Amino acid sequence: MGIKTIGLGESKNVIALSNSAGPVSKTLTAAESGSLITISPDSGTSSRHVLITLPATAAGLTYSFIIIANSGNTANDIKFTSPSTDNDIDGLIMGVEASNANIAVTAASTCAWTIDSSVTNVYQYSRWTVTCDGTNWLLSDAIFRIAQDSMGISGDTLLFSNAVLT
Length: 166
Known about the structure:
By secondary structure, the chain is mainly β. Helices cover 0% and strands 43% of the residues. Strands 1-2-4-6-11-12-8-9 form an eight-stranded mixed beta sheet, with no helix packed on it. A hairpin with a 3-residue loop joins β1 (2-6) and β2 (10-18).
């Protein structure tokens, strides 16, 4: 974690999450609002998931995420969740996938998702931002690079859930 300079002098706190030493479970705090969270799931060892939990809701909290490496093992998923099933993650997700037939998937009434490495472990450069409106998390700038023929249905790479993930 530390301050990094971006662009023309703009600085942002960077929280680096890596599964190189083991599984990662990070619960973000309100004090970390405005941070860029980089995710590197590139460990070749299995069962090293990256679990990210948003903090309790408060209007104006915002976090940006980018996956900076592909998964090093098909048993290492990335799981992203709000802290409660009462706090949805709402918005539009844009995805790039092999057939280009399924580009957009609406995330509605969901509070969690998993990027499932067992289907494909190619998702480097995927990114998203969430901002809290006081009750729910609003998704913006969500672009996923996923090497899969379709998205948004059972068995695909990006799985949505109404349950908080653990």
